[in-house]
Write a structure and sequence with these properties.
The protein has 153 residues and is of the alpha/beta class. The chain has four helices and seven strands, in the order αβααββαββββ. Helix 2 runs antiparallel to helix 3. The N terminus is likely disordered.
Length: 153
């Protein structure tokens, strides 16, 4: 089969697009905004407390991660669902520990405010939750103040 120059260029373009798409799935999380390395580390520490808390039913770790007035929202069977932090941590305390692995997809920081997208994977590697977390820095400490999430089936 004879390839014309246009066909060859088109094939090369398709190859490059496919390669960049596969590479994009493996890239590190996007970290944007004004955060210093210390602030990024502090935010990641909060995220670690959060994931360790829900994985091991550790309400003390969750209280370290969340502001006391934090709200948690999602959809349950197609209906808006909201809980306060005390109600949610009480439910977590009753759950059997279930190890989760986090993948930070993005962190965007503007001085004392941050937004994080976090995917949580079950022990078998399946995607369990996608969280969108809002954080605020109060008195030099970062806290999750709002969590919206999607539960994957």
């Amino acid at each position: 089969m004879i390839m014309t120059r246009h066909t060859a260029l088109f094939s090369l373009l398709l190859f490059l697009l496919a390669s960049s798409s596969a590479h994009a799935q493996r890239r590190p999380p996007a970290i944007e905004g004004t955060a210093t390395a210390r602030e990024r580390a502090a935010i990641i520490s909060v995220l670690t407390d959060y994931v360790e808390g829900i994985s091991s039913s550790d309400t003390l770790a969750l209280r370290r991660a969340f502001h006391p007035a934090a709200r948690l929202q999602g959809m349950r069977e197609g209906v808006y669902y909201e809980r306060s932090l005390p109600t949610w941590t009480a439910a977590i305390a009753l759950r059997k520990p279930s190890p989760l692995r986090m993948a930070i997809r993005s962190i965007d920081v503007t001085q004392t405010a941050a937004a994080v997208r976090l995917d949580l994977f079950a022990e078998d590697g399946t995607l369990a939750y996608t969280d969108y977390l809002s954080l605020l820095q109060e008195a030099g400490r970062w806290y999750i103040v709002n969590k919206i999430y999607h539960t994957h089936d």
